[in-house]
Amino acid sequence: MRESQRYIIFLIITLLCGFSAYGQDEDENHPYWVFFHDKEVTDQASFNPAEHEFPHLSQRALDRRALRGTVTGPTYEDLPVPAIYIDEILGADVKVRTVSRWLNAVSIQATSDYIEELDGNTIVKKTKRIHKVSKRVIKRNTRDDEVYLEDSDYGASFDQNEQINAVNAHELGYTGTNIWLLMLDTGFYTDHLVFQQERIVAEYDFIQGDSITSNQEGDSSNQHNHGTAVASAAGGFIDGELRGTAYECKFLLAKTEIFGEEIEAEEDFYVAALEWGEALGADIASSSLGYLDWYAYEDLDGETAITTRGIDYAVSLGMVCVTAAGNEGNSSWYYVIAPADADSVIAVGAVDEFNETPSFSSHGPTSDGRIKPEVLARGVATFCAGTLSTEAFLSATGTSMSTPLVAGACALILEAHPNWTPMMVREALMMTADGNTSPDNTRGFGLIDVMAALDYDFGIVAGDVSGDDELNISDAVLLLEWVLSEAEISEVQFEVADINDDLQVNILDIVVLVEWILTL
């Protein structure tokens, strides 16, 4: 029998086994989204916020929206999902998991037969199965002090802060003071001394539905390990041992992911946590989580994934969103994972202590051709808090660990520039990173430089040759005319047009400009 024939027979048997297994669980309960057509009391076109109350929205959240959001509130999306709709779709054995105002949806546990019945209900717009994903945890390394440039104030965390030029920002007094950082992760060992209790604004466990984000009955013993490591790198503090990039920020801690060899990463908990943190007034959301197993590459278009849509809406409300690019560089997937495909998110890849990109760091582009990741930070042997004791430390590897460093950097930038919008923070980090003149789909725009981002000048933007304060196709057309006609241009125009800083204005500047326009 030819090898190709053996392969076809094996594939057929595999598919038949899959169909058989699928048929066996048709009567089992599974998680589903149920989306509604409207919010019952009004439609979006006739919505008037003065006619409604929004008790879940804090004044801090409304102030942040007014200051940094493209959508200021309250909005139609802030209206609650109608209780009468929820009651109508609930059967005797149907359990509500989460409710999403932004999506106008509820996630429930139900059988496929029950969902088929709901699809005929006039109030239901559509239903969608919530899938489960196998998650890779961060790799744990033994502590090796020789890897780090020790400093009496930072301990072994000095090098990861120095590499992104955060230490100089700290010396200037930027430490994340009064910036609220929402962390979405597996849980948090809040007894660890890196987490001062007065800096924890709020906690919520979306898995068990309570306010305990550290391990509790029903959790794996390792449940809070990942989140503890990640949050400590962003904002933990023990003098002489560890300083997170924003070591005086405030924390909102959201426990959204179930730990285990096969983590059931539930996207409905993720979106619910975004809504919870945004309503409380979070300035930044950081997630070292990702979703890919039920998506095809074509779905990474910045429009399809539920978590991606949630990120984009959160950014429109003025919340900076940072997420891990993923650790799929060595896998058959290769590319970034949702929600890193969002066009408004800051997706973070990894570098080692030598500013080399490790092979595991996920690549771009998105399926619609945008460069990913946006930026890089230390994601190999990053120093962080452990959970063996209240003073335990370890080093860990993955884009899970580079992400909180960038989230912390965003906190420093917002502390210095509280009026900057999320897209301005994103642009400042990208356009001052070490590869900003030659971005690619392995390093993105490169290793961030916090001090350069703090000093980023939006007044004269490289590439804005038309002078309209935007980077768009008109700039590319005008720059092409300058190059082709060898026109005489002023010194200011030369500074704006010499995008790659090689003291020439030529076709290479046009190439870089076009890449920027396609990415921003």
Summarize the structure in words.
The protein is α/β, with parallel strands linked by helices and 520 residues long. It is built from 15 helices and 16 strands. The chain has helices at residues 3-24, 59-68, 83-89, 112-118, 158-163, 166-171, 225-235, 267-280, 306-316, 399-416, 422-432, 450-454, 473-485, 491-497, 507-519; strands at 30-36, 95-100, 105-110, 124-129, 139-141, 180-185, 200-205, 237-238, 242-243, 250-255, 284-287, 320-324, 346-351, 375-378, 382-385, 393-397. A seven-stranded parallel β-sheet has the order 7-10-6-11-12-13-14, with helices on both faces. It is globular and about 75 Å long.
Descriptive keywords:
7-stranded parallel sheet; 520 residues; 4-stranded antiparallel sheet; alpha/beta; disordered N terminus
Q: Would you spell out the secondary-structure blueprint of this structure?
A:
Elements: H1 3-24, E1 30-36, H2 59-68, H3 83-89, E2 95-100, E3 105-110, H4 112-118, E4 124-129, E5 139-141, H5 158-163, H6 166-171, E6 180-185, E7 200-205, H7 225-235, E8 237-238, E9 242-243, E10 250-255, H8 267-280, E11 284-287, H9 306-316, E12 320-324, E13 346-351, E14 375-378, E15 382-385, E16 393-397, H10 399-416, H11 422-432, H12 450-454, H13 473-485, H14 491-497, H15 507-519
Parallel strand pairs: 6-10, 6-11, 7-10, 11-12, 12-13, 13-14
Antiparallel strand pairs: 1-3, 1-4, 2-3, 5-16, 8-9, 15-16
